[in-house]
Structure formats: structure tokens, C-alpha cells
Specification:
The chain has a 6-stranded mixed beta sheet, sandwiched between helices. Strands 1, 2, 3, 5 and 6 form a 5-stranded antiparallel beta sheet that branches. It has helices spanning about 45-50, 75, 95-105, 110-120, 135-150, 165-180, 195-200, 220, 235-245, 270-275, 290-300, and strands spanning about 5-15, 20-25, 25-30, 35, 60-65, 65-70, 80-85, 155-160, 185-190, 205-210, 210-215, 225-235, 250-255, 260-265, 280-285. It folds into 2 domains: about 5-80 and about 150-220, P-loop containing nucleotide triphosphate hydrolases (Rossmann fold); about 225-300, YebC, transcriptional regulation domain (Alpha-Beta Plaits). α3 (about 95-105) packs across α4. A hairpin with a 3-residue loop joins β13 (about 250-255) and β14 (about 260-265). It contains 11 helices and 15 strands. By secondary structure, it is of the alpha/beta class.
Amino acid sequence: MNEIILQTKNLTKSYKKRKVVDSLNMEIYQGDIYGFLGPNGAGKSTTLRMIFNLVFPDFGEIEVFNHSVIKQRFSALKDVGGVIEKSDFYLYLSGYKNLEILSSMSGKKDKTRIMEILELTGLKNRAFDKVKTYSHGMKQRLGIAQALVAKPKLVILDEPTNGLDPQGMKEMRELIKNLSVIENMTVLISSHLLHEIEQVATRMAIINDGKLIVQGNVSDILNSENCKYYFKVDNISKAIHILENKFSAKQIISTDDGIESLINIKQVSEINKCFIENEINVYAIIPRQSLEDYFLSVTQNN
């Protein structure tokens, strides 16, 4: 197991009488692409602001690289880059010049590094064009480029695909994966776009009303014991009868060429065998559980 590089311990924040973040304990390991999910108002943005020391918690602790963000802010955050809400640029300057100014301010002016970042973010060919000529997706990527100037070990991105078209989302997914592999960075992504997180994240947490609902490996969470399965069969009514009466299956839905149902993973092979024994041809068995299914099930029940 890789070392923990960010963790919160009983992190709590209230506004007036409402707990926005409630005893939150999350752990991010080196090398993670960590999806941070929750409905609107769940406490995600407040948590990120506390990690960056922009908002102070009422109670609890945040440790980044084994340093307290509250007591040792510089040591904790010196290897952290991020984009929280909207990035700001000098629109009348080029993308390169914006990064050069930021690099000078950080004391790490490195022209080679700037060009590396622009290539990594797919902006090299437009490096010397004014930012006001950039598309929304290009500005999103330039914001991430700003976060990478000092070559951080941890990058925190707040809604990085917000407002992007499908092609822009695809490019952002590839960029996030490259940050993990090529730049050897750990990435924390806060997002409400569940399908996007499912495609890039290795670990995730879901919060609701400020409380941690679940945390773990994405693959483990989605392959839990109860999962939606699609059975492509030639006798739908007979198959439904077997699922209902022999296996007490739940949430059975018939489609044009099969059945979808919530099934215990341990029953799948037995169901298949039973269908065949009852002269039902089975053409396919496909797990249907998605991050969206799981997200809705845990947030609506809490």
C-alpha cells in the first residue's frame, strides 16, 4: 500500500447552525486518482477550501505530506497545486506569458518547464496566442497548466470538466491520466459528473450532508455483492418467473431482448444454470452497475 499523502481527521465545519462538513475522515494515497463526489451542497467545496487553508475548520485536522495544514501551512501545501472554482488570467497576454508571470512569482521561473506543461495540456500550438482567443476548454486546460508550474506532487481539481463538450471532456480525461502516469502526480478531483469520474478514478469518496458515506477503490465499490445484471434471453416471461420465485430477485425490468435485475453476485452462475435447465437460451450476462447507480443508491438512503 502506498503512503497516505492527504488525510482529514474528524474534519468539521458549520455555518450558523448547519454542519456543512461533519466529522469527515478521508485518506488519499500516493498515486491515487481520487474522485470526490457528492450532491450539490454536500460539502465538497468547503472541504477543498479547508484543505487549501482558505477556510478554517471548527474542529478536526488536515494533514498533507505529514504536515498539519492548520499549524504548518507552508510545509503542508508547498507541493500542492490546484484549481478551485474559476482560474483567472490576463486575457490580453498569451498563455505562455501568463504561465511565465506565475512561474516568476513562485520563484521557479523555468522556460523549459513552461513549454513542457503547455505540451502536456495540449496548448503548445497556441502558446503565444492571447488567452482571450482561447475556447472555454482551452482556458480550462490553461488553468490546470497554472497549477502544474511548480511541479506539484498533489494536484487538486474542482470540477475540471465543467462546461466542456464531449471532445473537451475526453481531452480532460486523457490529461488527468497523463498527470498520474507521466508526471507521477496524485490527483484529487471534485466533480458531480459521475460518468467522468468512473472512467478516470482509481479511488473515491462519496459525501452527503457533510458526512462520508463510502470510501474505497472504485472497482471494489462497483463490484459489491448486489449488482444490476442484464440477461439476454429468448423467453423473457419464463425467465422473470424464475427470478421472482426461485431467487427472490429485486428491481426486475424487462427489455426488448432480455431482463435487467438486481442480483447477488454469488447467484449469477446458479441463475444461468437454472435458465438452461428450463430450456431458456442465454445469449449474454452483463453487469450493469455504474457509479451513477451506486451514487444514487447511497445518497438517497442517507
